[in-house]
Write a structure and sequence with these properties.
alpha/beta; Rossmann fold; two-stranded parallel sheet; 13 helices; globular; binds NADP nicotinamide-adenine-dinucleotide phosphate
Amino acid sequence: MSNVPRKAHALVAGGLGVIGRNLVEHLTAQPGWRVTALSRRTPDFETAARFLSVDLTDADATRAALADLEDVTHVFFAAYQEKADPHEQVAVNLAMLRNLTEAVDASAPTLRRVVLYEGAKYYGAHLGAFVTPAREDDPRHMPPNFYYDQEDYLRARAAGRPWDAVVLRPDVVCGFALGNPMNLAMVIGVYAAISKELGLPLRFPGTAECYGRLAQVTDARQLAVGSEWAALKAPGGEAYNLTNGDIFRWNRVWPAFARHFGMELAPPQTLSLREMMADKAPVWRRIVEKHGLVDVPYAQLAAWPFGDFIFRCDWDVITSTTKIRQAGFGDVVDSEAMFLRLFREFSQRKVLP
Ligand SMILES: NC(=O)c1ccc[n+]([C@@H]2O[C@H](COP(=O)([O-])OP(=O)(O)OC[C@H]3O[C@@H](n4cnc5c(N)ncnc54)[C@H](OP(=O)(O)O)[C@@H]3O)[C@@H](O)[C@H]2O)c1
């Protein structure tokens, strides 16, 4: 983008996650951005970003780690911890955002904007059917919901300060990252590879109803480009849904997946991925050896309960992208092409056969 400030310094919290890693890759490839990324682990790949290992749940450690970052201009908050208990989820995720924001606020008077990532769970997508297409100003569901606490905290904190906040709400982010099993492209890719190894056709493992419903996803690359737009060009203080900008039905894309994997397509057969895939580590080991794949622990490959959740949505899952388009970000990604590109990328990187 043309109007990157001369010394824009991005601080990406959660720089090894599916959102953060793809954002770091995008920003480091743009002229004019300096990128510092945070996570507890350190990267096992080449990157032009400076990675700092810090536990954001520890306020003192966070302040100490960020003390010399005096010229951060933009924070992208994509750190995240999954907790089954929603109260615990609020506590840990709010603490990480608060610790980071307060540390940056203390060290960097240059801060201009914080971009916070939420998702369709803002609208209650995890609770069941919700009003669609969901609009940014739709009423909230009954709390707790950690997004509400994070957003309210950030808005209150920004008041009277030289920085503001922009909220992005992607849905089902698909992109390359390892050790982050909540990645739908990997769920489908690993499920397909195991089905193929067992001589089975490719069957949609969710409900027949879900197979025909409208769905949407967000390409992590599209989100990265949209995040740069959110940092530099979006009207501040606002929330925006950000998806691929297209919608699809699983029954339209599943045949293309079968062709891609060289498998026969068969009608859906509803099963619990959580239960049925639990004992498939030995099959995966065979696949790894046969195809010389990177040895990712089976438990970190694919979040089967996440797949069960997505493939059992017997209702449309659509958020409106009118607001973000009207505000100036109108990029569109073909979701079927995105899935096929990711399957190819995972194969080239020797993660999938
Ligand atoms: N993935 C999706 O489909 C999706 C969809 C919509 C919205 N979202 C939202 O987007 C946000 C980011 O999600 P994501 O999927 O990108 O997450 P993710 O892939 O699980 O990555 C989370 C990142 O946070 C870091 N992290 C976790 N605990 C940390 C700690 N104590 N200190 C420092 N870093 C820590 C992790 O690295 P370490 O483990 O190395 O610390 C990792 O880099 C979340 O709010 C999520 O709800 C995600």
